[in-house]
Amino acid sequence: MPPFMSCFCFKSSKVDRHRPGSEDPTILASETVFTVNEVEALYDLFKKISNSIIKDGLLHKEEFQLALFQSSNKQNLFADRVFDLFDVKRNGVIEFGEFVRSLSIFHPNASEAGKISFAFRLYDLRQTGYIEHEEVKEMVLALSRESELELTDDVIESIVDKVLIILVFVICCILLIIQPN
Predict the structure, then answer these.
(1) Tell me: the pLDDT tens digits for 135-153?
(2) Are 99 and 157 in contact (CB under 8 A)?
(3) What local confidence, expressed as pLDDT, does residue 112 receive?
(4) Which of 72-86, 92-106, 134-148, 166-180 has the lowest mean pLDDT?
């Protein structure tokens, strides 16, 4: 395996680090790309989802998975990673402010840098600041299991190698855009 394919590093800036703030729709709108009306609509959605199993106004992992899969028991590495990234306070639940700030990364007007940082953190399973070969492999294996695909070890390794090549290419392009000289 070529040396550059063993891991992939992208030290993120503090582009999408948010300090806990007020739950006021006006403040949340000013901290995100959402309008006040969109924040209010998200609050209605959040109330519905966060009270589907445990009626405490907080979004638990089971409720998050229920909203995504209509089942709170299905294990999904991708959903677990998204939940963990939304749970900024690392307290096992998502509060409304975390929900809005985290969802804003998916808005069409969100910054490209924020989207890249989110995607990077999604695949950086061990939170080391690097995307390692084993982390990509773990994601590929999880996705194949969840899709009920039966892939040989050689096919898995080929997919992992291609993903790492694409990551290197994307970062090189980003660096050229950021620092053209």
Answers:
(1) 999 999 998 988 888 999 9
(2) no
(3) 86
(4) 166-180
Distance from C-alpha of 60 to C-alpha of 55, rounded to nearest angstrom: 10
Mean pLDDT rounded to a whole number for the chain: 85
**Number of CB atoms found within 10 A of residue 22's CB:** 11
Torsion angle of the four alpha carbons 39, 42, 48, 50, in this order, in degrees rounded to the nearest 10: -80
Q: Residue 93: what are its φ and ψ, rounded to 5°?
A: -140, 160
Q: What is the CA radius of gyration of the chain?
A: 18
* Nearest Cα residue to 8 out of 126, 159, 116, 167: 167
Mean local confidence (pLDDT), 117-129: 91
Q: 3-state DSSP call for residue 173?
A: helix
Residue 8, CA distances (Å) to 113, 116, 119, 161 in order: 17, 14, 13, 11
The residue among 2 and 36 whose pLDDT is bigger is 36
- DSSP for 3-51 reads GGGSEEE----STT--------HHHHHHHSS--HHHHHHHHHHHHHHHT
Cα 51–92–127 angle (5° rounding)? 140
